[in-house]
Design a protein that fits this description.
Layout lengths: L1 H5 L2 E3 L1 H24 L1 H7 L18 H20 L3 H17 L7 H13 L10 H5 L7 E3 L1 H19 L4 H4 L5 H6 L14 H23 L1 H21 L5 H8 L8 H10 L24 H19 L8 H4 L14 E11 L6 E3 L7 H7 L3 H17 L5 E11 L5 E2 L36
Antiparallel strand pairs: 1-2, 3-4, 3-5, 5-6
Length: about 450
């Protein structure tokens, strides 16, 4: 029975190794902003922050607080990796890291959303009970077992990412027009050795289809023992290539580490045993089957309900975009938290038109008066963010004694190389619009024209 399989004891070494890798990766993710000045760029320099619906109360710390926040998260990451004060450390890391992502919507990244979810799951996974610092002092703990349900839960989460990333590529832009990959590759023709190939349309198409097939099949190949040993090198090669070609930060490293959950739970012990047999290596590892063996457990009914609800939510969040109709890459409703990775290239020219109510006078306002370059670029293709800034501009004009104003916007946006078109109805006064979960009637549909053919395409 399925429930019985969830409770089967398996080697805890795999979860412990995943915990260690996760902690080290998040440590790097917290140190990089400190070293590169991104804390200042994203959290100190902005004077206005875009808020998630329902989370307007989340505010940034002063400058010193933002630096301290990143530093504390870096330390907590090391604690998680080492298994020190694990329950407290992973909980504080989850809360602190998620809070950091909620400060400003323009900082949203798919892989940081994944980090929050994995940290949440690690709050319920006892991944500290093997190969921690305590286990180094007490070797018998190295063979502790845990119920298989924890491994299955992490596999589900990582599998959801790959599945919906592949499903998002099932469209004409990606599979027939090789866009937006063609736009990005054509800008990398100066890459050593392989650069000239990136000017060839058939290469764009081949790589688009390769990405689609990789995302939609890799989980199956990782789950099957006979193909896993070949699939994981493909995972490494695929994500290494995307890291070299595209500025996507820590995402490839996080996915390479996350794929480890598909290996047999005892895989670290096998690797350690192989290393122990190398000439001159003094390391000795207890053979499997010895040490602490956890008894078969039974998950309470309420825990099963919560787990089922969590899994259902992870499936429904990416699917919610279909309730809105139209093209989610254009209107963006349901785009976030749906694993639609690298499927759109949007460029926008945004100008706000401010007019005192009942007057013919009008001011044209550039978003850069209120935003950093990063914020303005991210906002330009996202209607809900344009709406937030419109309301902020109205409040600013009123605070300056200009009375009640109307705010309209000329938002000319290009999707995947298409000619620019109005994203938002330019006749709508955005101060009268309220954001929410219902379809945004004030946005305009994507014109039916296909992506523009780049130079050199057939």
């Amino acid at each position: 029975p399925l429930l019985a399989r969830l409770e089967v004891p398996v080697d805890a070494a795999g979860l412990a190794a995943f915990r260690m890798c996760f902690g080290l990766l998040t440590f790097v993710s917290m140190v990089r902003p400190l070293l590169h000045g991104w804390v200042t760029d994203f959290f100190v320099r902005p004077t206005f922050f875009f808020k998630y619906w329902g989370f307007s109360w989340v505010e940034a710390w002063p400058a010193w607080g933002m630096y301290a926040h990143h530093g504390v998260l870096a330390v907590l990451s090391l604690f998680v990796a080492a298994g020190l004060f694990y329950r407290v450390s992973i909980f504080l890391f989850f809360v602190g890291f998620t809070w950091l992502q909620l400060v400003d919507v323009t900082n949203y990244l798919n892989h940081y959303y994944l980090v929050s979810l994995l940290a949440l799951l690690l709050n319920v996974v006892p991944a500290h009970r093997a190969w921690s610092l305590d286990a180094m002092r007490r070797p018998e703990l190295r063979t502790e077992t845990l119920p298989a349900k924890y491994t299955y839960l992490l596999r589900f989460q990582v599998g959801v990412v790959y599945f919906f990333a592949g499903l998002a590529k099932l469209n004409a832009d990606w599979l027939l027009h090789a866009q937006p990959l063609g736009i990005w590759l054509s800008s990398r023709t100066d890459t050593p050795v392989v650069g000239p190939l990136f000017a060839l349309p058939w290469v764009w198409l081949a790589m688009s289809w390769s990405g689609f097939l990789f995302d939609t099949t890799i989980v199956a190949f990782l789950l099957i023992g006979r193909t896993r040993r070949f699939a994981y090198p493909v995972v490494i090669a695929f994500h290494a290539m995307t890291w070299l070609l595209f500025p996507i930060g820590m995402f490839p490293f996080i996915m390479v580490v996350s794929a480890l959950v598909f290996f047999p739970p005892e895989w670290p012990r096998r690797v350690a045993g192989w290393m122990a047999r190398l000439p001159g290596n003094p390391v000795r590892v207890l053979p499997g089957g010895r040490g602490v063996q956890a008894p078969r457990t039974s998950t309470p009914g309420w825990a099963l309900v919560l787990a089922a609800a969590y899994c259902a939510l992870q499936l429904l969040m990416p699917l919610r975009a279909h309730l809105y109709g139209g093209d989610v890459r254009w209107h963006e409703q349901g785009m976030r938290f749906s694993w639609r990775v690298m499927v759109r290239e949007k460029n926008g020219s945004i100008t706000f038109r401010v007019r005192p109510r009942g007057s013919d006078s009008e001011w044209q306002v550039s978003p850069t008066h209120y935003l950093t370059n990063h914020q303005a670029r991210e906002m330009s293709g996202q209607p809900d963010l344009i709406l937030q800034l419109a309301k902020h501009i109205a409040r600013d004009f009123q605070a300056r004694g200009l009375g009640d104003v109307e705010v309209r916007v000329d938002a000319l946006v290009s999707l995947n190389g298409r000619p620019s078109a109005h994203l938002i109805d330019p006749n709508v006064d955005l101060t009268t619009v309220e954001d929410g979960l219902l379809p945004a009637s004030w946005t305009l549909p994507l014109p039916p024209s296909p992506p523009v053919k780049l130079k050199g395409s057939a």
